[in-house]
Specification:
By secondary structure, the protein is α/β, with parallel strands linked by helices. The protein has one domain (about 10-190): Uracil-DNA Glycosylase, subunit E (3-Layer(aba) Sandwich), CATH 3.40.470. The protein has helices at about 10-20, 25-30, 55-60, 65-75, 105-120, 130-135, 145, 165-170, 175-190; strands spanning about 40, 45-50, 85-90, 125-130, 150-155, 155-160. Strands 1-3-2-4-6-5 form a 6-stranded mixed beta sheet, sandwiched between helices. The radius of gyration is 15 Å and the shape is globular. It binds uracil (URA). Uracil (URA) binds near residues 49, 68, 89 and 128.
């Protein structure tokens, strides 16, 4: 089944309305805001993170905390900004204490993201960190070995890079990420 092409009649309005009061998992009980997604709804490139942190939960927007500031810098390095890409997460509500989203929470939430992907219809998907890469590329994805490599995900070019939070914790990974970003930039240039 091509789960990215579930419903050709889907619309952003319908998706936002369906998603708005979601209580499909326990994370709905503790959220301040559901963090839907942000950016260009027709972007060629979609960035997919793991789940909202504290600032995202409070503001209702993905990647607005410290990791988000670094993501903005990473976009700038390759001449992109938030208005040119679409950014969303595997889970739309904050896991307590920023723990990894549990498999059942991911399973409950992923359908919203599949509909977002279908609507954006990006040519390139960039997964931020291991959790997002495992959900889409393969369950045994190894971010240390496989970041920066191209994969096919349902006919789309897909790459995982280190999560900006990992780069904040361990700046020694930044040079590798710079190389990955340049690889991504070349791919984007080849689209035109
Ligand atoms: N980390 C994520 O994976 N997503 C966000 O939106 C913020 C931090």
């Amino acid at each position: 089944m091509d789960f990215f092409k579930e419903n050709v009649n889907d619309t952003w309005e319908a998706l936002r309305a369906d998603c708005a009061n979601c209580m499909r998992c326990e994370l709905g009980r503790t959220r301040h805001n559901l963090v839907f997604g942000v950016g260009n709804e027709h972007a060629d490139v979609m960035f997919i993170g793991e789940g909202p942190g504290e600032q995202e939960d409070l503001q209702g927007e993905p990647f607005v905390g410290p990791a988000g500031k670094l993501l903005d810098t990473m976009l700038e390095i390759i001449d992109l900004d938030r208005t040119m890409v679409y950014i969303a997460n595997i889970v739309k509500c904050r896991p307590p204490r920023n723990r990894d989203p549990l498999p059942d929470e991911q399973a409950a939430c992923i359908g919203w993201l599949h509909r977002q992907i279908s609507l954006v219809d990006p040519k390139i998907m960039v997964f931020l960190g291991r959790i997002a890469a495992m959900a889409f590329i393969k369950p045994d994805f190894r971010i240390t070995r496989e970041h920066g490599q191209w994969f096919d995900v349902n006919g789309r070019r897909a790459m995982a890079i280190y999560h900006p939070s990992a780069l904040l914790r361990d700046p020694s990974k930044r040079p590798e990420t710079f190389v990955d970003l340049k690889t991504l930039q070349r791919e984007i240039r080849d689209l035109s």
